[in-house]
Amino acid sequence: MPASSVTGVSGPGSSEGHGMKGPGNARNAFVPLVSPHVVVAGSVALVGGAATVSFPPLAHSYVQYVVMVTPIGASATPAWVISKADNADGNMISFNLGGTGTQRVEYAVIKAGVA
Fold first, then answer.
1. How far is C-alpha 73 from the chain's CA centre?
2. What separation in angstroms does the CA of 70 have from each of 19, 34, 38, 80, 110?
3. Would you state the pLDDT for residue 84?
4. How far is CA 60 from CA 57, 66, 85, 86, 112, in A?
5. CA–CA separation, 45 vs 101, rounded Å?
């Protein structure tokens, strides 16, 4: 049986880059594409208890995304997503929020997936 090394420069198990370790195996490029990840985030002030958040079209329909909303401040009341919208090409472009008054809320649009 041949010997292998994690510190050597060649052969099985060596630290030489030959597609077995690190970025050479394409994991760093592939996993973020299929794993849940934030694609849009920010904050917005509700005006009269409502707000619309628009952004450049995201690839795929809104059913592929989760929108999370958090009110800012210790005494803030909950806010919620009322609706999400796609453009004519079937790509997500916006969502509507509901709440009370003129509070500020933080939001994150997350691409659904499995890591």
1. 24
2. 42, 25, 15, 8, 14
3. 96
4. 9, 12, 11, 9, 11
5. 9
pTM of the model: 0.69
- Predicted confidence (pLDDT) per residue in 40-94, tens digit: 999 999 999 999 999 999 999 999 999 999 998 877 788 899 999 999 999 999 9
- What are residue 27's phi and psi, to 5 degrees? -60, -40
CA distance 37 to 45: 24
Q: Confidence class of residue 100 from pLDDT cuts 50, 70 and 90? A: confident
Distance CA 12, CA 18 (A): 10
d(CA 76, CA 29): 39
**Cβ-contact 106, 70 below 8 angstroms:** yes
Cα 88 from Cα 67, distance rounded (Å): 20
